[in-house]
Amino acid sequence: MKALLVIDVQNGIVNFGNFNKELSRIENIIKDFKKSNLPVIFMRHFDDDENSSLYRDSEGSELHSSLKEYADYVIEKQTPSSFFQTDLSNILEKYEVDHLFITGFQTEFCCMFTAITAFDRGYKVTFIEDATGTVNTEETYEMKGLDIRDFVGTVLHWSNVIEVFDYDEYIEHYKYENAPIK
């Protein structure tokens, strides 16, 4: 069975930039999964540092209002991996999931770490590159011209073990005009 992971779509991240395209793509993918009665699992990152935008009890740590109603499950985490010290594995076992689709935020951290960890645990992984976003920029990494999403997608694609698509390729490969995900 397939499942969708929606990683860290939280106010403390989404409100840092204009992520309308990413949110729209994520919402469309969620609707595909819902139409096919496939699980949609949200990951919620939190920090214990009161100065963090993702502090546990802050507005920033809450799921973004545009998507939170879609969550079948919300799992809290404190590391980039959605698997480390969480109930994610148990939920995936319950649904007999063998194929994970990755969307969400902090492309180069939480999305990438989760994709790699999922593969290491034996899941087929589809990383939808342009349905991820990050608040970091080329300035963050002092690498002029760096396109973080493209870089992460390229690295994962080169691994030859993680399927990397952009949204249009996802539609072409997994969905045929209003048909459920195959």
Would you give an account of this structure?
- With 182 residues, the chain is α/β, with parallel strands linked by helices.
- It contains six helices and six strands, in the order E-H-H-E-E-H-E-H-E-H-E-H.
- The chain has a six-stranded parallel beta sheet with strand order 3-2-1-4-5-6, sandwiched between helices.
- Helix 4 runs parallel beside helix 5.
- The protein is globular, with a radius of gyration of 15 Å.
- The N and C termini lie close together (10 Å).
Show the helix and strand layout.
Elements: E1 2-7, H1 11-14, H2 20-35, E2 40-45, E3 73-77, H3 88-94, E4 99-105, H4 107-120, E5 124-133, H5 148-158, E6 163-165, H6 167-174
Parallel strand pairs: 1-2, 1-4, 2-3, 4-5, 5-6
Helix pairs in contact: 4-5
Domain Isochorismatase-like: 3-155
Keywords: Hydrolase
Protein name: Nicotinamidase-related amidase
SSE run:
EHHEEHEHEHEH
User: From the coordinates shown, what is the CATH architecture?
Assistant: 3-Layer(aba) Sandwich
Strand content: 15-25%
> What is the CATH topology?
Rossmann fold
Number of helices: 6
How many domains, in number, for the residues? 1
Shape: globular
Derived structural class: alpha/beta
Give the oligomer, counting copies of the same chain as homo and different chains as hetero: single chain
Number of strands: 6
Q: Supply the CATH class.
A: Alpha Beta
Question: Could you give the order of strands across the largest sheet?
Answer: 3-2-1-4-5-6
CATH superfamily: Isochorismatase-like
